[in-house]
Amino acid sequence: MDFxxxxxxxxxxxxxxxxxxxxxxSVTFSNRPELCDYQCNYAMMMAKQVGQRPFDxxxxxxxxxxxxxxxxxxxxxxGFINIKVKEKALAEYGDFLLGDKNLGVPxxxxxxxxxxxxxxxxxxxxxxxxxxxxxxxGEALKRLHLAMGDKTLADVHLGDFGLQMxxxxxQLHEDGYLDEFFKADADIQKLELPNVTxxxxxxxxxxxxxxxxxxEDFKANADEITLFIQQRKEPYFSIYNKIRALSVAExxxxxxxxxxxxxxxxxxxxxxxxxxxxxxxxVDKGLARESExxxxxxxxxxxxHIPIPKKSEDEPQRYKNPMPPAIIKKYNGGDLYATTDIxxxxxxxxxxxxxxxxxxxxxxxxxxxxxxFRCCKLAGxxxxxxxxxHVAFGTMNGQDGKPFKTRSGETVKFKDxxxxxxxxxxxxxxxxxxxxxxxxxRKIGVGAMKFGDLSVAVGxxxxxxxxxxxxxxxxxxxxxxxxxxxxxxxxxxxxxxxxKVKVSSVEERNILLAVLKLCSAYQVCYDSYSMNxxxxxxxxxxxxxxxxxxxxxxxxxxxxxxxxxxxxICVLVKKCLEKALWTLGIDSVEKM
Length: 592
Known about the structure:
By secondary structure, the chain is α/β, with parallel strands linked by helices. The protein is 49% helix and 11% strand. Among the domains are: 3-85, Gyrase A, domain 2 (2-Layer Sandwich); 414-584, Isoleucyl-tRNA Synthetase, Domain 1 (Orthogonal Bundle), CATH 1.10.730.10. The protein has helices at residues 3-17, 42-50, 54-63, 87-99, 133-147, 163-174, 198-212, 216-230, 236-257, 275-284, 337-351, 366-379, 414-431, 438-454, 466-469, 477-494, 506-528, 532-551, 560-584; strands at residues 28-29, 38-40, 71-76, 80-85, 113-117, 151-155, 288-291, 294-297, 306-308, 318-320, 326-329, 356-362, 387-393, 396-397, 462-463. Helix 5 (133-147) links the parallel strand 5 and strand 6 (151-155). The chain is globular and about 90 Å long.
């Protein structure tokens, strides 16, 4: 039951009878909701073509429709067609939604398999604030596709075969943690790393990372060890596997707290077996050439220059050099991110043949993925019909507008951010008389952080303001969670088993219109790969319910028909908000 499409078809039928082309006819939600629910400016667009006044043409189109069962149509100067949905149609729409398994969420015409790649944590390195947005955005986009009828697969795609592994192993070795593995009679498979803990890794990698910048020999040795790991040379590969297992367990625990769920915990290492084959594809097709000992693929297009983002609209457009070649083999035979990402796409296509692969990373990796995607299309690693998408997100900043850091200027740890939002939520709950419920505090704290993130257009930076995010009123996750909890309380007290939706007040009417907009927001998010429209629509629905709650005594209503209608509206709002929060990856709560 799509009112927008019904209105569009009704107008198109009338316009066709007048001999008009309807290819550019569209209907939108009204930007003046006090006047109408939908509007159409088709007559203003067509008037000049047919030599008529817009108002006169609009009147002819509306007069050709006659009496409509579901809509009231009116023409206003200079030629807009205003449409209002009748109360009976809105009530029927509400009843339809209560019986619809999809709750009015639009469904794709043909279900596709979409493979999501998000998370991207690096093994042996502690998660930090920069790892937050990828699982938050990626999980929501994945759930959006599920809600709209697609099939999905999700891979965390760990950074587990890069230089950080060589640096970590070298530092551990020099500090005496790995001595047993390098003894002549060592039984490598039976050895463990009892003294290597997460705390040790969190000390050793930063130490090694700083050394590589000032000690060329240390960096060269780390490069060599990284190559040994990639070549599965012992004892380096066995040590690597033990460190990886320790690190992945912690990564998985932290992502689970964010409600980020993955089908696979694969990493760059899983692509290694196909690296040589992948490189050979480019060699055999004459796409690879040698450059300073490395193998590169030219991906720049003729006449192409890359625009530099303008700081203001008045600034002239400037360009930087064409897209540089993609390096697929280092001078020492080692592999790079581009190589493993191309090999990973090759594996995914062989194993699952998805219709689309979506990467969710920060916007600094834009050139990298553009190179990878071009390589895959040039070599046929990705078939022509397959869509490769990079969803590039902005930075999470502090109150000063700069990337979020500690007061001493250090990168904030992932677990510290989670700890902060949960403890702040616990404080808010305590002020409401709820103490000691750690899981409820997690749901509210994490939900506040995720809603604050997702309510901003994905490509934009935003300010991490936990006090604002945790407010129980305003455009926040807790406000929507609180609305659901309030409805739970009303329904429990009423012992309501279900009934018919009725529209007997302006508040009920506004709620159903807000539900219409909420349902349409799913498609907006699907098309834009950004969840902010759904966040705004969910808030608007919760806000309209708050108005109804304040203006109507639902539980004490003496007119049984009105009470049934109000309680049915409560059920509808609760279900729609729960669906929206689930899609955003946020938990609903029973109480607050």
